[in-house]
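Figure S7 source data.
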Amino acid sequence: MTSADLTVVLRQAVRRLATSVAVLTVWHDDVASGTTVSSVTAISRDPLLIGVCLRAESGLTELLGAAQRFAVNVLSARQSPLAGWFSDPARPRGLDQFDHLEWEPDAFSGAPWISGSLASLGCHLTATIPAGDHNLLLGKVVTARSGEGTPLLHFTGRLHDGILRILPREVTHSPVRAVGPGWS
Ligand SMILES: Cc1cc2nc3c(=O)[nH]c(=O)nc-3n(C[C@H](O)[C@H](O)[C@H](O)COP(=O)(O)O)c2cc1C
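Tokens for the predicted flavin mononucleotide complex:
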């Protein structure tokens, strides 16, 4: 196997991680910006910390460094067009990219909280950790609101409607039955 083939195999496996999709927003000195991220995760319950991976080259990096605060809007399945919009390099810069949306400023960060999101969080940036071609941002959650709906999910490079079906308890509590054909 060539090293190029190996890279494909490794990336294919990592793409099996199903994640939520969010729009990370930053506001500083009357400039706002947003970008689609699928790397938001809960890190700590006490203090309440989340992590987000942001491309080092992202247009938000400088703004975030100045603001030291950010917001995260967890998208519902109905908001899938926003995932495309905030990942489009051709979108307008600054506040103009929010023109067609309903939003309000987060009381803590001033960054856009997008209406209709499953949840919106306002965070204090507590650490920026270089990680390969990304930075891992750690944020202490200071403000939050929650909405209703089904989550938008990212899986194998595609967006999915995260219809949630709760598994019966006997399946989730039976490791013996879980280890069957299909496990490798
Ligand atoms: C579903 C999806 C998930 C993404 N997840 C991330 C992510 O976690 N981190 C990141 O830096 N970029 C991610 N991107 C790519 C950025 O949204 C995209 O590169 C965007 O154009 C960057 O704009 P910026 O330079 O203003 O940050 C994702 C894109 C999509 C469509």
